[in-house]
Structure formats: C-alpha cells, structure tokens
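Record now logged for everyone:
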Amino acid sequence: MEALREHQRYTYADYCTWGDEERWELIDGVAYAMSPSPSWKHQEISANLHFQLYSFLKDKPCKVFAAPFDVRLNADSDDDTVVQPDIVVICDTAKLDDKGCIGAPDMVIEILSPSTALRDRVLKLRWYLRAGVREYWIVDPDSKTVSVHLLKNGEYYIRAYDGDDDGAAVHVLEGCVIDIGDIFGE
C-alpha cells in the first residue's frame, strides 16, 4: 500500500490537473497510483458483475458505473479523497455530475489485485464506512470469495460467500441477487 508523494497533501483540484496517462486515487490528501492495467481475470469479474447489475437495473432509477469513475467521498468538506472503485451503484442521481459521484454511492464493489488489496481492505473500507456507503463488496479473485459489508447503525456487518454459494442478495437493490458462480466465470 505504497503512497506516492507521501509528504505532500493534495486536493481534488490538484487531482484534476494531473494527466490521463496515469490513474490516481487520493485518500486523505495522499496520492496513490492505480495499476496501469488490471489482469484479465480482474476484468472478466468486473464485466460479469457489471452485466448482472446492469441487467437488473435496466429501466430502474439506480445506475451502475464501472471504473474509471471518480467518487468524491468528502466533497462537502476537505475534498481531499477521490477513489475509483471497480463498480458503483448510485440511486440518488443528484449525486452525479460531469466528473463522477459527489458523496457516498449506495454500493461499492472492489475487486482485489495484489497492488491494491491492502488499500481496499483497510483504507478504503474505513472511508466507505465513514462516508456512509450502505453496501461494500470485496471480491477476491484468488480465493473466489465475496465479502459483503452491510452498513447498520454506523458499523459494517460482514457476510462471506464463495463459489459454492448460489447467489448473494444485494441489500440496497430489493430483489437483486448476484450469481456468485457467474462472477468468477464458473
């Protein structure tokens, strides 16, 4: 979880001046480089999840977006945290602007990769909890597991699924069940 330029602090305004040749995230003003290109397994899982969510949400008010997509978690205060989750679901379209999402999405999905796993499991987990993300999924391609974090009374409660489970309910989308086997291409 190596931070770049660790002794400097940045804001979203700084972030917007950086070129498109590299992808970055800001967490508490610290810049973190994103992987230049996720693995094919990561991309397949992302596509499978996005497809299932998109199919369910067709003709419904909630929207699903895949990375790269900026989420400004504290835009109303310091504006020094912008992340690019693998997938987000946003039901309040007033949170959308030309650059992404302002505030907490209803659901965030992160697909672990070796370079981001610790950041996804620790830093981003804390930020998503603090920002009020109602449902946070961590998908592990290596173990073929999904950890679902549900926000209740200011805490995350966790439910784990693996490739043997048929489906996982998406709690922020009534009636939506994600086929776990399909996520991993099984």
Observations:
- The longest helix spans residues 40-57.
- Residues 38-183 form a domain with the tt1808, chain A fold (CATH 3.90.1570.10).
- The chain has a mean pLDDT of 90.
- Residues 13 and 83 are 14 Å apart (CA to CA).
